[in-house]
Design a protein that fits this description.
The complex is a heterodimer of chains A (223) and B (311).
Chain A (H helix, E strand, L loop, with lengths): L6 E10 L2 E11 L4 E5 L6 H8 L7 E6 L2 E3 L8 H4 L2 E4 L13 H11 L4 H15 L3 H4 L8 H13 L5 E5 L7 H18 L2 E5 L3 H7 L2 E4 L6
Parallel strand pairs in A: 3-8, 3-9, 6-7, 7-8
Antiparallel strand pairs in A: 1-2, 1-4, 4-5
Helix pairs in contact in A: 3-4, 3-6, 4-6, 6-7
Chain B lengths: L4 E11 L4 E12 L4 E5 L6 H8 L7 E9 L7 E2 L5 H7 L4 E4 L3 H4 L6 H11 L7 H7 L16 H13 L5 E5 L7 H16 L3 E6 L2 H7 L2 E6 L2 E7 H6 L4 H8 L42 E2 L2 E2 L11
Parallel strand pairs in B: 3-8, 3-9, 6-7, 7-8
Antiparallel strand pairs in B: 1-2, 1-4, 4-5, 9-10, 11-12
Classes of the chains: A alpha/beta (223), B alpha/beta (311).
């Protein structure tokens, strides 16, 4: 079972101080599928996504990526592993370095992986085209663009390395209907071309029914 | 019936170093007692600037023209645009309340919710002992009043901000994205709370990007696009048969409808086209659209989708 492809959390427990946020939860997403996860505010959905994104080390349990256990968090997981998992957060204002131009924001993960400058420029242009960011917008810093424009830049950044898995934490909640539909279309297009596995955390019932292939109610227990 | 708030020909410009932002252009609307008006539109279309202009809260590089007249109960009408800070201070909170967009940045971190709420009640001549009741009404557990704003979750901070705005019982309530960051049950709770206030006689202006929220509670809906009102009609009519092609396209983007984004992007507010601002993205556009449309039957369009007079 463990060598099945997919990103999975097994029996995850996380506590902040004496407060247990996650108590033996498990969740799996397979390549090419969109899993919708829904649950009340404060139930630990975001913490579980942080564990799956290898940004937070659980107290118990482990994460497997295509059957291989990836333990630890941040510095102990190689960048080549973490780069396979993209994350898109709810609030782009707190997810974007306010000093960077949108171009640098999108290019940062590519440069971190030492891609040559011309390859970086080509990929940024591709992503800008897909997400509908004009040359004028790319030159600006986050304070000079709208929430919707900034979230599209964060989406471009998350897709820069063609991640095998994309985790979306209420990623369209702050957006107007048209931008939401656009972000969903860009993600679905990427999924079709690269067989991306997508986890969608949202409390919008209409959105989850329209977008997710499989809906899981909190707490998730199956892999 | 005299409207509680009447905005007429309101325009707001921001001067930047090398450009002028046209945030609100020639906007007129009225708000009556017991009416819930939702202003909807894409982010950056000028919705929030409208609320801040009415309250005199814009930064110094803003130029505001037009009028916004407040008719408080049992007091002479007041012209809000151009009013002095001293006069505005007597009106804000007491006659026009604001539920701000991001409570995390508008609540002082050095005082507890209870300190903020009891002060608000005392300043406006209400009993500080009512704090628990006001908090509960806004969906906030009174125990959480003893916490500091940074100890509250986003949703709890939003409910505290709502409680602070409701405490002086203002006749006009401006709610700027009051449901941002809340989950669906709390969104519904907040909307129902605004609706109840409204039914008790308050005039509510709900600014939101969430069409589902507007559909749930609004009596009338004004759709803003590129600093102007594109369509302003009764909510039931607008959702059943949108008249402006922009409204129709926006509704089509909803996940329970076509889930189809509107092609193209809204124009920059620093470089608005001379004619209809939606024309470059509009399927109905023709030569007539190079001229600015006038507003007929609540719709600013040369080619409205519903027959004239239907609204």
């Amino acid at each position: 079972m463990t060598d099945r492809p997919g990103l999975a959390a097994h029996d995850i427990t996380v506590s902040y101080g004496r407060h247990t946020v996650l108590d033996r939860v498990s969740l799996r997403v397979e390549p090419g599928e969109t899993v919708g996860l829904r649950g009340p505010s404060g139930c630990g959905k975001s913490t579980l996504l942080r564990v799956l994104a290898l940004l937070h080390r659980p107290d118990h349990g482990h994460v497997t990526l295509d059957g291989v256990a990836v333990t630890g968090a941040r510095h102990t997981v190689p960048a080549t592993t973490r780069i396979r998992i993209g994350v898109l957060f709810q609030n782009p204002r707190s997810a974007a370095d306010p000093r960077l131009s949108l171009t640098d924001l999108i290019a940062e993960p590519l440069r971190a992986m030492h891609r040559p400058p011309d390859a970086v420029a080509t990929r940024v242009a591709e992503l800008a085209e897909a997400t509908g960011l004009t040359t004028d917008l790319l030159r600006r810093q986050p304070h000079a663009v709208s929430d919707g424009q900034l979230q599209r830049a964060c989406l471009a950044r998350a897709l820069a390395h063609h991640p095998d898995y994309l985790l979306c934490d209420e990623a369209t909640t702050m957006l107007d209907a048209s931008t939401q539909a656009h972000v969903a279309a860009v993600i679905t297009d990427h999924q079709h071309r690269h067989n991306t596995g997508v986890i969608l955390v949202t409390h919008d019932p209409a959105l989850i029914h329209r977008w997710a292939h499989r809906i899981i109610d909190w707490p998730p227990t199956g892999t | 019936m005299t409207p509680t708030l009447a905005v007429d020909g309101l325009s707001v410009r921001f001067r930047l170093r090398d450009a002028t932002v046209h945030a609100v252009t020639d906007l007129s609307l009225t708000l009556h007692r017991g009416e819930l008006l939702a202003v909807v539109g894409e982010s950056g279309c000028g919705k929030s600037v409208l609320a801040h202009a009415v309250l005199g809260l814009l930064p110094a590089n803003a130029t505001v023209t037009g009028t916004a007249t407040l008719h408080p109960d049992g007091a002479p009408p007041v012209q809000l645009i151009g009013a002095g800070e001293r006069q505005l201070r007597t009106l804000r909170g007491r006659y026009i309340g604001l539920v701000p967009q991001s409570p995390a940045t508008s609540l002082t971190p050095v005082r507890t919710g209870r300190a903020l709420l009891t002060e608000t009640l005392r300043v406006h001549g209400r009993l500080p002992a009512n704090a628990d009741q006001v908090a509960e009404e806004a969906g906030l557990d009174p125990h959480d009043l003893d916490r500091y704003p940074f100890e509250l979750s986003g949703g709890m901070a939003q409910r505290l901000a709502t409680a602070l705005a409701l405490a002086p019982d203002p006749g006009v309530l401006l709610a700027d994205e009051p449901t941002a960051g809340l989950d669906r049950p709390l969104v519904d709770h907040t909307l129902d709370l605004l609706r109840r206030r409204c039914d008790a006689g308050t005039a509510v202006l709900l600014i939101t990007h969430d069409l589902t929220a507007a559909r749930r509670v609004a009596d009338t809906v004004a759709v803003m696009y590129a600093s102007r009102i594109a369509e302003h009609r009764p909510a039931d009519d607008l959702f059943a048969a949108p008249s402006h092609p922009y409204t129709a396209a926006l509704l089509d983007a909803l996940p329970d409808r076509a889930f189809r984004p509107i092609p193209g992007h809204p124009p920059m507010l620093t470089a608005l086209p001379p004619g209809c601002p939606f024309a470059p993205r509009c399927t109905q556009a023709d030569d007539a659209c190079t001229a600015l449309p006038t507003t007929t039957h609540g719709t600013a369009c040369h080619h409205p989708l519903t027959p004239a007079g239907a609204a």
